[in-house]
Amino acid sequence: MAGIVITTPAGAGTRTGNRHTAQRWARLLRSLGHRVRVCVEWQGQPADLLLALHARRSHASIEAFHRAHPERPLVVVLTGTDLYRDLPRSREARRSLALATGIVVLQDDARRQLAPALRRKTRVVYQSSDARAGAAPPRDRFRIAVVGHLREEKDPFRAVAALAELPASPRIELVQVGDAMSPAMARAARDWMRREPRYRWTGGRSHAAALDWIARSQLLVVSSLMEGGANVICEAARIGTPVIASRISGNLGMLGRGYPGYFPVGDSTALARCLGRAARDPGFRNRLKKALGARRALFAPRAERAALGAAIGEALRSVRLRPKPARRRARDRRRDSDRRDRHRSPRPG
Predict the structure, then answer these.
(1) pLDDT in the model for residue 43
(2) What is 3-128+300-328's CATH superfamily?
(3) Helical (H) or strand (E) element with 53
(4) Is 226's pLDDT higher than 80?
(5) Domains 3-128+300-328 and 142-299 fall in the same CATH topology
């Protein structure tokens, strides 16, 4: 089977979504018989195929691999910042897609962001989770979870701003799990804890601990301004915790356009109405659970394994079937001509 190098700008030991994706895909591809190495940058390591996460930030690896091995397949995985920020203004990101044999996106709505010529070589691989509910939410209160690193793209304090608009009630609490990606984010979280007694920021926690908080909450809020395909939605779906999400392309592609739990991006008042309704209306919570349950099979590990294996297999086959570049055809013709000349030359003596 093929030797595959996965590049991700997230280094070893980091707890970012890209790093989790790279490590999980390495396991899935190894289970399909491939030899896989994960690194931050391709620097000449042997590879039959390069799988690069992030069109802009992995561009140096993409360009170097293409120069060294123009005949070998190159698959680019588009993140949220690629799709919704970088592609319109980054020449490097667009160049990465032009060089790609195949493109992978993490939810179906992402294809709508690409030009028709790029859609033809784009495949959807939903991320998966094998998470299960190992604990139950408390019965004496309504707990809301926000899980993800505190950075601008996540609009991390939208949920607590919405909570502040709800009537004071000790029955509702909000727990936020994730590392602050800047000192300013940490200061803002601590300031919110001083002002809003129903809010608690735990800081960074292990992946297992974050899953436990999702399982022990009645609701998960995903308030992002941009998402390539939030893995936390996969995890909530597998656990069975309903989601309230901002109406952005990345969430629409994960939850479906008919999902009943959206709020307008950046709108604290609308989110507050959703949170209040979820807290007091079991029928609304059941609608959310039913709609999320209908998507659950998309996020199963076997579904991700099959889709990823198909995308890699297609990239490998397409290169084998692709016509040789003009320079390579000319080189092969010269080599064949030399062989014929040697064959026809009279033997000495």
Answers:
(1) 93
(2) Glycogen Phosphorylase B; (3.40.50.2000)
(3) strand 49-53
(4) yes
(5) yes
Return all residues near 31 (Cβ < 8 A) that are at least 6 apart: 305
Cα separation, 232 vs 230, in Å, equals 5
User: CB neighbours (10 Å) of residue 110?
Assistant: 27
> Cα separation of 95 and 120, whole Å?
17
Q: How far apart are CA 151 and CA 132, in angstroms?
A: 27
CA atoms within 13 A on the CB side of 40: 6
142-299, which class in CATH? alpha beta
Q: Average pLDDT, whole number, for the chain?
A: 90
Q: What is the mean pLDDT of residues 148-164?
A: 96
Burial (CB count within 10 angstroms: exposed 0-12, middle 13-18, buried 19+), residue 79: buried
Using CA atoms, how far apart are residues 25 and 2, in angstroms rounded to an integer? 14
Using a pLDDT cut of 90, give the percent of the chain over it. Answer: 79
Q: Give residue 248's pLDDT.
A: 96
User: How many residues does this entry show for the chain?
Assistant: 349
- Least confident range from 36-50, 277-291, 326-340: namely 326-340
Describe the chain by its helix, strand, coil percentages, rounded to 5: 50, 15, 35
Q: How many CB atoms lie within 10 A of CB 157?
A: 22
Domain boundaries, the chain: 3-128+300-328, 142-299
For residue 322, what pLDDT is reported?
54
Tracing tokens 């033997």 back to the chain, one arrives at: 347
Query: 0.70 cut: is pTM over it?
Result: yes
Asked if pLDDT for residue 25 goes beyond 90, the answer is yes
Q: In the numeric block, which tokens belong to residue 51?
A: 């799988």
Separation CA 39–CA 41 (nearest Å): 6
